[in-house]
């Protein structure tokens, strides 16, 4: 293969404009003819081939493909190059069985460089350009406000990964939309180490903001990483009998080890909440745990969507996008190259399940609550405020009940985020 | 809850309509009546919901045509070429009519809180007790009264929200979230402490148009009226003494009449009127928005909230709407511009808030007004400069850490 005209390094400068879609510097050895589509999708093909080789334990092919991917990939290039880069890392770890070590290192690195300012900037910018997280926020807040209607002592148990960015709008709504402003107690359960370090600042901001809004407010942070989430007790969470309780769980259930998810749902039930709002990303990395190939396919499908969404939402030279992409690398490594049996204690499982699957789990102890028309309208209005490409899909997939169990955010008609509400 | 203002001149109503006595010391006379404190001599009319909402209450006796408004009917009657005698209204002096709300649980159901205008009571009934049929397409906010909805639609999405840090938002939800996390919010405590050095920098003026030369030590406050504080009547006449005495207790005037919500601006007799203060201080960029453009971001945020929640706030006939919607709003109107001009008086000041549980002594001072505090800004450089950009550092660290590939020296995972 010619290498002289290969220039993977030319794309390393972050400000390089994205090469035109048809430009493909390397002939794909596997393709007999090149068409615009093929050019575009070389990464997925290569990655799939590599994954297949790993499944087949064909070490020669593995080496070759890994090397090729290394040549072609870059975190600064187009979507293909990025996907190639981040998946390459996971594939490499899988091939060399160094997933755990790699993951730990990634986590440590991220921990050290994490700080409130950067995290805040990142998430706020992300929310500005994409409804990925705000979708869940608006739906959940709507359901929460409706569940809390008429109550005066509110308690929200929040287990989420959005750094409390959901709550300012809720506080504002409590302050302005209700006749008598109720008091709110917010108990945040933190599992990820990175989040813990910024919680102090977040606490201050939340308290100040609540004061500004004039909402009587108490804010507690509970460390949820000492033991399995399902083992937390009502006392530890500070739940009192005269409170109206709501559990808000955004992007957090997937971080619970698969075997413990039932326990967590049981815990929620034991708190006797008015409503439980669950928001998760629509991907299935759980059922295919034993099957690397299937799991890989799903992973690739999901992250291709995600990277594509990021690319179209942010400016080409955005630093925030780069950081978000890097955050993915941890998840990808974790899912693809860390075998679950050896991973107890590694924390943050990242095995997503689709809405349908969560429904099965939740239906054991809860029944679904459809989002009211008002809330759905709010969500639709939210989506209008972003660039095109976003739409709302109703999750009709749950055939057990007649009710809609959740709504789905779709990017280019592919469901990506699932939001739902449940009551005991 | 809003403390109802009872004006000294209308204290005790003798014809029995009013059962409330004036428990509160008389406040400074306000030009506008509290919504729902009608003329004691007025005739109280109670209409059923059906009649109230009937569209053609005024009928022409000649041809039977129905009209929504009395004025329209009169106009129509002229067309009948009535002889002069019949042109006049019925001979007896028509008593002024006031209307009560048919909803039993409503505060305006009682004759003492009747509203003077038929249109007003209709709108009130719709707004408070009616179904919200009109929905904004952009933000899906609902309204019961069509005119409210129309008014909102005109402005929805057009307003801009400006944070203290200078960022401008077109979306309210982004603004709110940003505000909660903004460094400017965190820095207010620092500013308050410094602001304590500037106090009483006000020029006496009958209209109490304070010219701030320093930090907003005495920003007009919009805050929950605290009933426990008897207002010293002597301070009413001499506005200056309020300030110079540093008796912040006396500053707490009841702000039920916020010009910012489009109320007609009160005349100079008013004390501590937020909008006039701002308007004299700052150039209005958007004259139609009155104080909007000149308000601090926190107040903006709250105003935004209130603009959203109180439907049409510009109708003068709906003052009562203000008071009831203010209840929710006032608690949120404890703006951070709790004018803590003096740290030493903090305690006295904040003691005021012991009634409201959410207030504590960390009364952070006001945000800068948009103009005129360049000196302050220089002293307190924007928080942005403090932020450490470590994203670059992250770039370098990431993956540069010891993932040594085995047997594949060419595979590089760093991207420096």
From TrEMBL, chain A:
| Region spans: Disordered | 1-40
Supply the source organism's classification. Answer: Eukaryota, Viridiplantae, Streptophyta, Embryophyta, Tracheophyta
Motif: VHIID; annotated at 154-158
Renumbered residue ranges of the record's region SAW:
337-423
Q: Where is the composition biased (Pro residues)?
A: 17-28
- What does the similarity note say? Belongs to the GRAS family.
Q: Which InterPro entries match?
A: TF_GRAS (IPR005202)
Q: Any idea what this protein is called?
A: Protein SHORT-ROOT-like
The species this protein belongs to is Deinandra increscens subsp. villosa
Q: What are the start and end residues of every segment in region (VHIID)?
A: 123-188
Pfam families, per this entry?
GRAS (PF03514)
Record bears the keyword Secreted: no
Supply the alphabetized keyword list: Transcription, Transcription regulation
Automatic annotation (TrEMBL), chain B:
Q: Zinc-finger: is it a keyword of this entry?
A: yes
Domain called C2H2-type: residue spans? 58-80
Under PANTHER family, the record lists: SERINE/THREONINE-PROTEIN KINASE RIO (PTHR10593), ZINC FINGER PROTEIN MAGPIE (PTHR10593:SF148)
Check the record and name the PROSITE patterns matching this protein. Answer: ZINC_FINGER_C2H2_1, ZINC_FINGER_C2H2_2
Superkingdom of source: Eukaryota
Entries under Pfam families matching the protein: C2CH-3rd_BIRD-IDD, C2CH-4th_BIRD-IDD, C2H2-2nd_BIRD-IDD, zf-C2H2
Q: Where is this region: Disordered?
A: 17-40, 310-330
Q: Which SUPFAM superfamilies match?
A: beta-beta-alpha zinc fingers
Name under which the protein is recorded: C2H2-type domain-containing protein
Organism in which the protein naturally occurs? Deinandra increscens subsp. villosa
Record's compositionally biased regions (Low complexity): 310-325
């Amino acid at each position: 293969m010619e290498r002289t005209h290969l220039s993977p390094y030319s794309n390393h400068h972050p400000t390089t404009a994205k090469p035109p879609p048809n430009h493909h510097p390397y002939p794909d050895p596997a393709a007999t003819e090149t068409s615009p589509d093929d050019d575009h999708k070389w990464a997925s093909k290569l990655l799939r081939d590599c994954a297949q080789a790993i499944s087949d334990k064909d070490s020669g092919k593995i080496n070759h493909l890994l090397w090729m991917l290394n040549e072609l990939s870059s975190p600064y290039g187009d979507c293909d190059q990025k996907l190639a880069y981040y998946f390459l890392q996971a594939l490499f770890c899988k091939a060399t069985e160094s997933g755990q070590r790699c993951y730990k290192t990634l986590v440590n690195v991220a921990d050290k460089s994490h700080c409130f300012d950067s995290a805040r900037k990142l998430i706020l910018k992300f929310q500005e350009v994409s409804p990925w997280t705000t979708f869940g926020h608006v739906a959940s807040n709507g359901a929460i406000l409706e569940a809390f209607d008429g109550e005066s002592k509110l308690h929200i148990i929040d287990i989420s990964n959005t750094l409390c960015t959901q709550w300012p709008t809720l506080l504002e709504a409590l302050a302005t939309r209700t006749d008598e402003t109720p008091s709110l107690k917010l108990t945040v359960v933190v599992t990820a180490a990175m989040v813990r370090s910024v919680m102090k600042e977040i606490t201050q901001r939340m308290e100040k903001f609540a004061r500004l809004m004039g909402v009587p407010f108490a804010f507690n942070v509970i460390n949820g990483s000492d033991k399995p989430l399902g083992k937390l007790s009502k006392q530890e969470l500070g739940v009192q009998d005269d409170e109206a309780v709501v559990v808000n769980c955004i992007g957090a259930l997937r971080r619970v080890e698969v075997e413990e998810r039932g326990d967590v749902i049981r815990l929620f039930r034991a708190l006797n909440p008015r409503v439980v709002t669950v928001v998760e990303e629509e991907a299935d990395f759980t059922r295919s745990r034993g099957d690397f190939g299937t799991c890989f396919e799903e992973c690739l499908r999901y992250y291709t969507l995600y990277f594509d969404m990021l690319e179209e939402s942010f400016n080409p030279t955005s630093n925030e996008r780069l950081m978000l992409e890097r955050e993915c690398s941890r998840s990808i490594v974790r899912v693809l190259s860390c075998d679950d049996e050896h991973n107890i204690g590694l924390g943050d499982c990242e095995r997503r399940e689709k809405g349908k699957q969560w429904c099965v789990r939740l239906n054991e102890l809860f029944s679904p609550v459809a989002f009211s028309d008002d809330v759905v309208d709010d969500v639709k209005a939210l989506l209008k405020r972003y660039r095109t490409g976003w739409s709302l899909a109703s999750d009709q997939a749950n055939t057990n009940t007649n009710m809609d169990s959740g709504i789905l955010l779709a990017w280019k008609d592919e469901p990506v985020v699932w939001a739902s509400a449940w009551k005991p | 809850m809003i403390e109802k203002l009872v004006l000294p001149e209308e204290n005790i109503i003798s014809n029995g309509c009013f059962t409330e006595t004036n428990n509160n010391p008389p406040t400074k006379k306000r030009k506008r009546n509290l919504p729902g404190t009608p003329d004691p001599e007025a005739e109280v009319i109670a209409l059923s919901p059906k009649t109230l909402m009937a569209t053609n209450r005024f009928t022409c006796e000649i041809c039977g045509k129905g009209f929504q408004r009395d004025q329209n009917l009169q106009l129509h009657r002229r067309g009948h070429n009535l002889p002069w005698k019949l042109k006049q209204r019925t001979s007896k002096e028509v008593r002024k009519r006031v209307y009560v709300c048919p909803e039993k649980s409503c505060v305006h159901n009682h004759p003492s809180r009747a509203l003077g205008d038929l249109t007003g009571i209709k709108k009130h009934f719709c707004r408070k007790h009616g179904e919200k049929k009109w929905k904004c397409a952009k933000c899906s906010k609902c309204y019961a009264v069509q005119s409210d909805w129309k008014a909102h639609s005109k402005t929805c999405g057009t307003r801009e929200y400006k944070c203290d840090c200078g960022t401008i938002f077109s979306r309210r939800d982004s603004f709110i979230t940003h505000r909660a996390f903004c460094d400017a919010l965190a820095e207010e405590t620092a500013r308050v402490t410094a602001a304590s050095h500037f106090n009483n920098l006000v020029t006496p003026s009958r209209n109490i148009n304070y010219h701030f030369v320093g930090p907003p030590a005495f920003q007009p406050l919009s805050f929950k009226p605290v009933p426990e504080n008897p207002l010293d009547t002597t301070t009413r006449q001499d506005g200056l003494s309020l300030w110079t005495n540093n008796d912040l207790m006396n500053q707490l005037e009841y702000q039920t009449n916020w010009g910012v919500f489009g109320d007609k601006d009160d005349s100079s007799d008013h004390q501590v009127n937020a909008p006039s203060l701002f308007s004299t201080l700052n150039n209005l960029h958007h004259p139609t928005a009155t104080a909007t453009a000149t308000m601090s971001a926190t107040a903006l945020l709250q105003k935004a909230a209130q603009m959203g929640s109180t439907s049409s706030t510009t109708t003068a006939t709906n003052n009562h709407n203000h008071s009831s919607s203010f209840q929710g709003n006032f608690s949120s109107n404890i703006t951070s511009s709790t004018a803590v001009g003096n740290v030493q008086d903090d305690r006295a000041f904040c003691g005021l808030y012991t009634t409201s549980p959410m207030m504590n002594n960390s009364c952070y001072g006001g945000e800068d007004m948009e103009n005129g505090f360049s000196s302050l800004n220089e002293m307190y450089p924007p928080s942005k400069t403090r932020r450490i950009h470590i994203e670059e550092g992250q770039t370098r660290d990431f993956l540069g850490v010891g993932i040594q590939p085995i047997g594949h020296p060419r595979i590089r995972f760093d991207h420096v």
